[in-house]
Amino acid sequence: MKPKRKQRGQPKRKERGLQDMFDVKLALVRDENQKATRDSGHALEDEVPSGTSRITPEHVHYQAPTSEAIPPVSSLKAWVRYHKCLQSGTFGQKCTLKTNHFVVTPLKEFLYQYEVHIRPEESCRINRAVISKLLYQQASEFPDIFPVYDGKKKLYTAGLLPFTCRSFEIDSRGILCNKLTRRRRERQFLVVLTFVARVKIQSSYMDLVWGEEDVPLNIIVREIRHFQRYAESFQLGEGLEVLQDSYENLQLSQKGLLLNIDVSSTLFIKDMPVIDYIQQLLDRDILDRPLSGDDRSKINKALQGIEIQDIHTGSKHFVRGLTGSARELCISSGDRRTGKSFVEHFQETYDYNIQYTDLPCLRIHAGQRPLFLPMEVCIIKKRLRCSKQPNQDQMSALLEVARLHPGMRKERILEINKCDLYNKSAYAKEFGIKFENQLLSVDARVLPPPWLKFHDSKEFLPQVGRWNMIRKRMFHGGVVRNWTCVNFSWEVEDKIVSRFCHELAIMCQASGMDFSVDPVLSVETCNPEDVEWTLKSCLFDVMKKIEQQGRELDLLIVILPNNKGALYGNLKTICETDIGLVSQCCLAKHVLKMSKQYLANVALKINVKVGGKNTVLLDGFTRRLPCVGDIPTIILGAHVMHPGKSSSPSIAAVVASQDWPDVTNYAALASAQANGQELIQDLFHVPHDCETGAIDAAGMIREHLISFERATGHKPRRIIYYRDAVSNSQLYKVMWQELVAIKKACSYWEADYEPAVTYVVLQKCHHTCFFADYEDDKSFMGNGNILPGTVVDSDICHPNEFGFYLCRQAGTQGTTRPVYYRMLWDENRFTADAFQCLTNYLCYTYARCTHSVSIVPPVYYAHLMASRGRAYMESMAPETRGEGHAPSSGASSSGAKSVMVRRIPVVKDNVKRVMFYC
Question: What spans are recorded as compositionally biased (Basic and acidic residues) (predicted)?
Fold first, then answer.
């Protein structure tokens, strides 16, 4: 019998100890680490304890930890030291790679920091212009000195300035200021420089370790980059261009201080008059004929939110929308119209005669007194970064530019660093920094692929991360006896849809599914404008036909005209949260082509949606899977999706394995939270019933633990948590709080339940890539990309944490970019070889394709579930979007506050039991 759950207000001694363990203040410990670093002059280093267990290549299995092997965690500093004990792996075929990192050697020991105060306050860009003008006008005060400035409060020099505190007045002429400064007629900037401290260069290394970028050495590198620009532009049409620029960033690694250089591609709006931009956008002369409603809608969407500059005052503005034509606008004064037209007002005020009075004006202020500007006086200046989603053709062109062959990328990186420009820079000489000009060589290993198991005891070893289903059947084929099809595309005839469905049923049968060839009802073509009525009407007709036999509809096949608009989201929301029905959508263009490869891929998705398994790992089937096979283990994947609009909530998704030891079937949950909130808030919470006073723990972790026990008959004794998309600045805070939530969810579920937790963060948005050490290197694919399974866990990795770069996909286009796995917490005491092997193997279990994927499937599935949650939210009727709100506390994009976020619709239980999100 389970012990009674304790009530709130009566904490147990054990739970108080658990809470004490996790109530470590991150900032305090960080100060301790920095102090220790300053005292020693280098990063913390610890000896690896003797007797560390290692595994042999023949037996890559997990070694169970002992209680005394795990040190007590009394501070985060102890946690950092604890992770230093894990050595690099040895399993796999050894090889040597080149990476786009260059060794950096600071030759000077100290820098001098000054605090900067600028009045009136302006943006970082204007602050830099003010300091630049100060250095030019007051050159005598800065003899032979090249200071670097972060644009905010910090200025660094290589030598002492001839003063401790000094104020300067700088003329604002030539510096573009904001409207408030101009309105006050402030013609002078007051700059105050105050000496702060002499800074030891090595003492700032720990700031790099903790994810901060505004450290002295990085500021110096950015200043060097300002004068050593590498840029090449490519036109995409409709006023857009891709700028291929250089990326540089300093990193502290096991090898020391490194400069990471890469080629990055960014989308910009070209410098041009607004009228020219609109003509390129519409691909016609807008002066020939009036703008249609669709034209105005497209222009409004493209211009809204971008920054423009007017030519008559030089002021900058943000576009809020469009108005009617210029000759239709009248000027209002307060609440009364003056009767004066906008054209007359503009002529009298600015002595400018508007030529194109039929064109709409730009609305630049949305207050009580709106302000308008004629299009002809507005220009887009200084290459605006484009935040809008490019269309399909532009995206294809963008990807084509960004996909650089490994050899070409390597050449361009070396070109950026060619001729020793970094070392010849005045800033490098001033601050005594030496940059190596050769790519860094690193040691690597290629891990072998896992054996896969299919039906009828058939086993297969993938080659170069790929396999196919030819002469293979799914490990466990699902059952689809009752299905029907709804066609929302007017372009595809019913007979073509019927043939497509028949071919799909044949393919599913050939793959190993029990799939009926005949649908319950014939194909029905429906109006996409009324999805809910169509689906419920179809379901009514189906149930009327099969309910007498006691059967239910297993699958709904839906033909969509395209992947634009809200049709897909509306359909999935109705099927999964209202009706309780699994559906498979197919685009009309694929139905018309009807290729065998497409049908095979759809069959894979259908099988897992109806409870089947496509393939399993042989080591999982035989309970020899590293880190998993010995005791019940649950694997979790988590992701937070942030919307572009600040008014929309972020969507958090957590998926969890539901089968052990196979780890191929995953249940998924999603929740909405405050916009921009990175911490997953619904991992654990304790709701309080105001009417009954009952207290019961809830949250996604608890629900996953319960469903795992129901599915396997075991409580998980080990938790492996893969977390995606956390920025360096929030990394440790998010890890600490989510780890606390996981621990609390376990403790509240059952007394004395304490599974060991391993917390791993995936980082994909980095600029590290690898190249062949020499030509014809057998450790590489024919196109120059590294082989799937290549792992690097030394030299360029984190100096104090255990982390590794793993390339799992077989790159066929462009340069393959590995994923960086950072193990921030490990109570399971995994060895490096065992955990790397597990991560490598998991990448072969993604259900939607027959090749290994770049990131572990739990995180991929969390991405899919977060997208599904976003579709649920967007498809909710406007009148119901304000209902069912839940409080969401924490830092949003506007700061730390408590906001109300509407709940995501709940998925029906029968749908939730399968991988409906695939």
Answer: 32-45
pLDDT-derived band at 2 (thresholds 50, 70, 90) equals very low
Give the gyration radius of the chain's Cα atoms: 31
Element (H, E) at 316: strand 316-318
DSSP 413-456: HHHHTGGGHHHHSHHHHHHTEEE--SPEEEEEEEPPPPPEE-ST
**Residue located via tokens 């649908």:** 519
| CA dist., res. 452 & res. 879, Å (int) | 50
Measured between alpha carbons, how far is 729 from 776 in angstroms, rounded to an integer?
Answer: 41
Check if the beta carbon of residue 683 is closer than 8 Å to that of residue 738. Answer: yes
| Separation of alpha carbons 479 and 473, rounded Å | 14
Contacts made by residues 230-233, CB under 8 angstroms, sequence distance 24+? 230/412, 230/415, 230/416
pLDDT in tens, 150-169: 889 999 999 888 889 999 99
Q: Is residue 902 within a helix (H) or strand (E), and if so which, with residue range?
A: strand 895-902
Sheet strands (E) in 464-504: 479-480, 483-487
Mean per-residue pLDDT, 840-860: 95
Please classify residue 560 by burial: count the beta carbons closer than 10 Å to its beta carbon, then call 0-12 exposed, 13-18 middle and 19+ buried.
Answer: buried
**Cβ atoms of 322 and 296 closer than 8 Å:** yes
The string of pLDDT tens digits covering residues 5-26 is: 444 444 343 444 444 444 443 3
* Range in 35-44, 331-340, 804-813, 900-909 the model is least confident about: 35-44
- List domains and CATH numbers for the chain: 104-268+396-438 (no CATH), 272-382 (2.170.260.10), 477-612 (3.40.50.2300)
Mapped onto helix, strand or coil, the DSSP state of residue 400 is helix
- Strand pairing partners for 244? 232, 265
Predicted confidence (pLDDT) per residue in 63-99, tens digit: 333 333 333 333 444 444 444 556 789 999 999 999 9
